[in-house]
């Protein structure tokens, strides 16, 4: 559908009285074949309908009778008031962009203020063409050779640089962590401050959020960066070997101990020991860990002498240590010894703004690894798939996202990973539960759908800090008007 949007000019009306064409009629009769002409008018209302009838007759004589002519009454403070003109144009463009395949805006009719607003708004629409007419009746395609976004970025770069120079510089160790969301930026600021100290740290968060990545960044940003970091998953340690793996053993300490062994504490001497899933440690090992923290010494299994060690402990867990201390499964004194510097890594669903950038980074890594495959083909992920990923809850967090993208790359038969490719590659617990136990839905069907829509709209508005323009893009809606209608129907306040 091709649409012409234009203001009504005084010359258009005057020429009509002499049965002569001015700008609007010239474009409608001689320009590209149009499905609709939308004319905006705020004055001379006693002449509007005569003009519309005249233009419709002229279109019929030109074998363009299928072109409809619509006159829209609009309210302006004055024909040179930029604020009211902009509001009118934005509202019209929101509606027309959703329905028109090609949109033409007439710059000749109307006041200079109307032309300026038309250029500024029209330049931001990909399928919009700016046109004007000459006194001789020629139609001119207008190309404004200015990239407004680039110019704005250029003019503001010095201010941004000035602001950045006044802020603490982020250590390179944290630059690899995607942090566009306020939640993740806050976590990294705390982690960087913690890195500059030598205090024990406790990294909390659900499985798969990247606690190990955060711990490594803290180590590499610390004064211990040139010393080793040792990593152990406490939940994967064999119960009968936990003591030996952490603290070492002497020769003959137990069956099979045919030589002395330095444990992870000694191996990490001068550096950092990262204890992942520290909540899985048995109580007897927790006692020895507490001693190592307090006395800075350890005793090998089977030994009678202690060894001094200088190790910084970073512990992590997805478990509720407060509840564990209450029920006696985790020592309270050890908890408070570890929880000096606490960093909470947010779940992926709480930092949706980071998901597109995370996907880009993960896809680079996945494509690089897949190069070794004999049938390798570099793949990209579609925008629809990215939009879906930004709203999916990702129960398994970044680990689930990474695995899902790997499966999508493996099974997709085209260079572009589609929305369907990504959805079919998800193996989350929620999806599996629905698949195995059948479809269940509480309450009224429409109420259920409305609750989903309301949650999505509220989330999109929060992520976009109340910007309807950004929110409608996140939701995949074509216009602000659709979003406004949803908000009104769902009872969502404008202030969200």
TrEMBL record:
Supply the alphabetized keyword list. ATP-binding, DNA-binding, Nucleotide-binding, Transcription, Transcription regulation
Give a yes or no for keyword Protein biosynthesis in this entry: no
Pfam families linked to this entry? AAA_lid_14 (PF25601), Sigma54_activat (PF00158)
> Looking at the keywords, is Ligase present?
no
Recorded hits in PROSITE patterns, A to Z, give: SIGMA54_INTERACT_2 (PS00676), SIGMA54_INTERACT_3 (PS00688), SIGMA54_INTERACT_4 (PS50045)
Q: Which domain of life is it from?
A: Bacteria
Native species: Vibrio nitrifigilis
What is this protein's name?
Answer: Sigma 54-interacting transcriptional regulator
Tell me which residues make up the Sigma-54 factor interaction domain.
177-410
Q: Which SUPFAM superfamilies match?
A: P-loop containing nucleoside triphosphate hydrolases
């Amino acid at each position: 559908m091709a649409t012409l949007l234009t203001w009504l000019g005084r010359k258009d009306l005057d020429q009509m009285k002499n049965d002569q064409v001015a700008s609007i009629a010239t474009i409608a009769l001689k320009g590209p074949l149009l499905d609709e002409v939308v004319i905006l008018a705020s004055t001379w209302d006693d002449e509007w309908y005569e003009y519309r009838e005249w233009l419709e007759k002229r279109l019929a004589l030109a074998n363009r009778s299928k072109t409809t002519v619509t006159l829209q009454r609009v309210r302006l403070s004055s024909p040179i008031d930029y604020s009211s003109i902009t509001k009118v144009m934005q509202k019209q463009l929101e509606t027309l962009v959703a329905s028109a395949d090609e949109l033409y805006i007439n710059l000749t009719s109307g006041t200079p203020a109307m032309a300026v607003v038309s250029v500024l708004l029209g330049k931001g629409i990909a399928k919009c063409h700016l046109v004007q007419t000459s006194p001789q009746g020629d139609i001119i395609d207008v190309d404004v050779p200015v990239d407004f976004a680039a110019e704005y970025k250029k003019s503001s770069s010095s201010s941004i640089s000035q602001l950045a120079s006044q802020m603490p510089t982020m250590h390179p160790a944290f630059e690899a962590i995607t942090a566009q969301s306020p939640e993740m930026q806050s976590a990294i600021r705390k982690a960087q401050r913690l890195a500059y100290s030598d205090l024990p740290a406790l990294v909390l968060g659900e499985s798969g959020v990247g606690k190990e990545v955060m711990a490594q960044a803290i180590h590499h940003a610390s004064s211990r960066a040139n010393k080793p970091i040792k990593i152990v998953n406490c939940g994967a340690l064999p119960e009968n070997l936990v003591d030996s793996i952490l603290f070492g053993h002497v020769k003959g300490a137990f069956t099979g101990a045919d030589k002395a062994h330095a444990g992870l504490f000694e191996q990490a001497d001068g550096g950092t020991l990262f204890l992942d899933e520290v909540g899985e440690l048995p109580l007897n090992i927790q006692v020895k860990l507490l001693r190592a923290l307090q006395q800075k010494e350890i005793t090998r299994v089977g030994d009678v002498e202690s060894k001094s060690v200088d190790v910084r402990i970073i512990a992590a867990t997805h478990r509720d240590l407060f509840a564990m201390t209450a029920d006696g499964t985790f020592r309270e004194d050890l908890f408070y010894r570890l929880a000096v510097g606490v960093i909470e890594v947010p779940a992926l669903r709480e930092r949706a703004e980071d998901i597109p950038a995370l996907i880009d980074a993960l896809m680079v890594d996945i494509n690089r690894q897949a190069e070794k495959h004999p049938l390798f083909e570099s793949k990209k992920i579609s925008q629809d798939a990215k939009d879906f990923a930004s709203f999916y809850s990702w129960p398994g967090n970044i680990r689930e996202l990474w695995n899902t993208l790997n499966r999508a790359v493996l099974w997709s038969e085209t260079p572009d990973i589609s929305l369907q490719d990504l959805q079919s590659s998800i193996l989350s617990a929620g999806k599996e539960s629905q698949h195995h136990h059948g479809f269940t839905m509480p309450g009224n069907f429409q109420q259920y759908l409305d609750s989903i829509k309301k949650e999505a709209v509220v989330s999109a508005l929060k992520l976009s800090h109340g910007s309807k323009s950004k929110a409608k893009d996140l939701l995949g809606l074509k216009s602000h008007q659709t979003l406004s209608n949803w908000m009104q129907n769902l009872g969502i306040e404008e202030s969200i």
